[in-house]
Amino acid sequence: MNEQECPRIEQTQVYVKDVSRGNCFSAMIAGILKIPIERVPLFGSENGKPWQHNANEFLRPYGLAWLPLDGNDFPAECVQYGIKDVWHEIAGESARGVGHSCAAKDGALAWDPHPSQSGLEKVWWHGVFIALRPWEAAARIEAAKKPEEKKTWAWSETATERLERIEAIELEHE
Question: Which H or E run includes 120?
């Protein structure tokens, strides 16, 4: 794994029935965001809100939201739609028989935050991170580009520019 990839973060609290909740989801988020696990809370149903809502409140300042996608078609859809290098959650039933979250890349398990690193027996969903304000990420990338790297794509043409280009091509072939 290179420095640009998602580091494995081990969970600091494991699930023990009737004793403690595990923080596998928190560890997965810490790894994906590359922040210390101590800065990620243990998400529960506090304040009368479901844990998913609380997780999204935590992610909002990072410009992200988390959304679970059902089913096992996600890996094939990543290939089908040309999605590469996407880090996300993969959740399901662990070998220990409890719900569990791990980090995944392109639909495949990348690392398990549990000390056993035993992964998942059954996948329930793939949790993706959605950019809330994608133009902010684009602005950072564009600002860092050199002038010669600022490429204009053909599909970014206006309708008028496209018509003019097509007419010019047609005239060349007459």
Answer: strand 120-131
For residue 75, give the H/E element and its range: helix 74-80
Q: In which residue ranges of the chain is pLDDT below 50?
A: 1
Q: Residues 42, 54: contact at Cβ < 8 Å?
A: no
Rounded Cα–Cα distance for residues 123 and 64 (Å): 23
Quick check: 131 and 137 in contact, CB under 8 A?
yes
pLDDT of residue 73: 87
Bridge partner list, 94: 120
d(CA 11, CA 32): 13
Residue 104 burial class via C-beta count within 10 angstroms: exposed 0-12, middle 13-18, buried 19 and up: buried
**H helix or E strand, kind and range, residue 166:** helix 159-172
Q: Which residues of 141-172 are buried (b: 16+ CB within 10 A; e: fewer)?
A: eeeeeeeeeeeeeeeeeeeeeeeeeeeeeeee
Tell me the two tokens of residue 16. Answer: 């023990």
Phi, psi (degrees; rounded to nearest 5) at 106: 55, 35
Q: What does residue 125 show for φ and ψ, rounded to 5 degrees?
A: -160, 170
Please give the model's pTM, rounded to 2 decimal places: 0.79
pLDDT value, residue 142: 82
